[in-house]
Amino acid sequence: MEKRSATLYRMILPDHTCPFGVRAKDMLERDGFEVDDRILGSREEVDAFKAEHGVATTPQIFIDGERIGGSDDLERWLRRG
């Protein structure tokens, strides 16, 4: 069976690891996804990512090129699958 893959953009700053990013990574791995874990390591990277994608929050999960959304959106997406 081909391994499914997802791209996860999440914030890990020197003084803060986003718990929602950790949760999203865990959900994806438990569901059998290979995770391309893209770390946003500075406030500037986070702000640039949010501006580029027109989103207000991180993490953001992409599966097959489709933006699923954040960790709550991912949870709903996995439940319906």
Summarize this entry quickly.
The protein is of the alpha+beta class.
Please, could you describe this protein's structure?
The protein has 81 residues and is an alpha+beta fold. It has one domain: Glutaredoxin (3-Layer(aba) Sandwich). Helix content is 41%, strand content 35%. The protein contains 3 helices and 5 strands, in the order ββαβαββα. It has helices spanning 19-30, 43-53, 71-80; strands at 4-13, 16-17, 33-40, 60-63, 66-69. Strands 1, 2, 3, 4 and 5 form a 5-stranded mixed sheet that branches. β4 (60-63) and β5 form a beta hairpin. α1 (19-30) packs parallel to α3 (71-80). The radius of gyration is 12 Å and the shape is globular. The model has no long low-confidence stretch (mean pLDDT 96).
Largest sheet: 5 strands, mixed
Mean pLDDT: 96
Low-confidence stretches: none
Total separate domains: 1
Helix fraction by DSSP (H/I, runs of at least 4): 40-55%
Secondary structure layout:
Elements: E1 4-13, E2 16-17, H1 19-30, E3 33-40, H2 43-53, E4 60-63, E5 66-69, H3 71-80
Parallel strand pairs: 1-3
Antiparallel strand pairs: 1-2, 1-4, 4-5
Keywords:
single chain, 81 residues, alpha+beta, 5 strands
